[in-house]
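Entry 14. Structure prediction run on the chain below.
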Amino acid sequence: MGADGPKFEVASVKRAERCEFGSSIDPGSVTLRGMPLKPVLMEAFKVKMEQIQGPPWLDADCFEIIAKTPKGATSDQRPAMFQELLTERFKLAAHKENRLRRGYALVVDKGGPKFKEDDPNKSFMEDHPGQTFFGSGGKGRLRSVMTMAFLAAYLSKRGYGPVEDLTGLKGKYDIELTWTPDPDFEPKGFDVSPSTAPPQSADSPAEREPDLFVALRESLGLKLEGRNVPVEIVVIDHIERVPTEN
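Output returned:
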């Protein structure tokens, strides 16, 4: 953020009469109608909902934001533009800090990986990584070319809490995985204290192993080990509930 950073050319910001969760974003403009500020903050800092700590009204109060994007601006510049807008209109002040959360480390199992590094000349889905297909019987299927960091991020989004890539594998790999989701599995995404909740292994009898865990081992030679994982949190130090006038 700053005077020399990218900004929306023109922006109208006002409170909405009701929450609609309507949005339209194209290269020339951004239109958010009846939108809480939490999703706007998520876009501004490129984080997930649970990575933002702020007042409860961020999920309840809704706003209308209509802004014009400068000519030639890229989508990569949009988060900085949202940060500038929130700072100017809502007096946003925030900082980032790492906190421990109960999650998993993605590691190579003792037998070694069971997949091959991608041949770029034969990449069938290189431009669309992380595709999931659900077939009959509720089975999940993942087939793509991806890095281990991307796979860890993908697993994080499946409700398993934060997953950190500790495989040491740096290339792009052909990944194919089929599993049956466990309806009784409880996602792990809550804050923990290292003194009261020591890291647990996925092999622990007290921790049920979903079918995805077995599939990772049998199909890919990878393993998820339960442990406390550092997660970056955006802490909202100050934000005005009423935006400044247009």
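Residues 10-90 form one domain.
Filed with the rest of this week's runs.
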